[in-house]
What we know:
By secondary structure, the protein is of the alpha+beta class. It is built from 4 helices and 8 strands, in the order H-E-E-H-E-H-E-E-E-E-E-H. The chain has one domain: Mannose-Binding Protein A, Chain A (Roll), CATH 3.10.100. 20% of the residues lie in helices and 22% in strands. Strand 6 and strand 7 (161-165) form a beta hairpin. Helix 1 crosses helix 2 (55-64). The longest helix has 14 residues, at 193-206. The radius of gyration is 16 Å and the shape is globular.
Amino acid sequence: MRTRITLCVGVWSVLAVTVAGASGPYQWRTEDGGNGHFYEWIAFPETYPNPGITWEQAYAAAEAAGGYLATITSAEENAFIYALPGLQDYSLRGAWLGGYQLDEEQGLVGPAEGWHWVTGEDWSYTNWQPGEPNDWGLAYPWEGGGYEDRLNFWCWPGYGNWNDEEAWNPQGYVNGYIVERAPGLPALALVGAASALRALTRRARRE
């Protein structure tokens, strides 16, 4: 069961409409074997002076839109999302997803361990790009690189595989995000795993 709360609505809703390009929403219909949820690709092209969007910004924008960053729990769901019109135009930095590591900033787990979905669903299905996850940012500390503890699509045409990426660093800016919404999901709902994640990430940044 997925539960959400949306506390801020105005700024990010306007930003998503006026700055980004949207594809969708498209429903993964139950009669087609889906879950009935709606998915929307929001593009933030990386053109000067717009560097794209961070995971935190995408997370807040998805909540403001009444949804959450998409979670992928099967190959079928992965294929449906990857087929959203326009998503494959954005190569490596295609789209933020709702995957994260709580302890990666402190180096307490390896790059493939400790992953969670923002909804609290089981982390069982994965579709990593070969060689990922790898904390590649740690190899370039002089460029501000660090632990890669957030999830995004690698959108090479024909793949739809996943990559670990940095949440805060400017190199972690990605060209958009995927919003997922359940049918009839209200703008305000009960707080769930997402609010806990927000508090933990704020604490991690202070430390």
